[in-house]
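Let us work through a complete example step by step.
Step 1: write down the sequence.
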Amino acid sequence: MKKETLFQLFKYSVYFLIFINCIYFFWEDYNAAGFTFRDGLTLEVIGDAFATAIDSLAWLTLLILFELETYVIPDHKLKGKLKWSFSALAAICYVFLLVAFSGYFDRMMMTYGFHAVVGDACSYVGQVLSYATDIDEYAELTLASCSSIPAGQLYVNPDVSIITSHEALISMHRLSMTDVVNSAAWLLVVVVLQVDVFLQLKGELTQRLYKINVVIKGITYITLAVACFYWAYLGALIDFWDALLWLVAFIFIELNLFKWHEHDLEIEEAEEEAARALVDEAARDAETEEAKS
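Step 2: predict the structure and record it as tokens.
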């Protein structure tokens, strides 16, 4: 098989793995919502309950749109109804990304609603409904399960009726804060990428603007890489794996954009060279005519 074919297979395999992760995050959010939203899910709290799932699905949709715009569909076809359809779908995704960011932020603030209590976990059976072992992992607090909660300082959040240990609460703080930073960084990436695509289609993405955007995205990608490996450090291997896949996926998009930009520059330079050749030829013809006269 050709190298380009192998590269494309690898790229779309990464995209497929991201799709599998989306399914997993919907399942994880659904299970967690049963403990954090006991009064039921209303439209107002859907974003909080399914922040990770909504975030993943919106990003997957944007990833596909960027792939189509920067690699699959030729420039001359990205016009009219198709372009407007892409823009409308992207706008919907941006709304969901903001909803997901708000959900991440609210979940982080939820971790700051815990206060220290005295006694062991079993003494809270009947008063507190569940306990948290992680930011996305909860279980019913019963006489059978309370003994599994480590002895030591305990914390309760009465708003969501959840109890947790000191170690778990620290982990929840760190994981939820990383979610917020990661979500904000990705929002910046998508804004800059959208500017790149918009200017590229209009033929106004100059080398200077392109390099400025590369620097902005470079700093942001470094932030995302730090968050990715921080998840690994915290033992959140699923989050680490998902973040790694997204970084790889958007490297592909950046490569698409780079090739697209370089190709258009080559065309522009060829056209300028052809125009100069015509001017030079016209000048020579004029000189020849002048010499004859």
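Step 3: interpret the result. Residues 177 and 237 are 16 Å apart (CA to CA).
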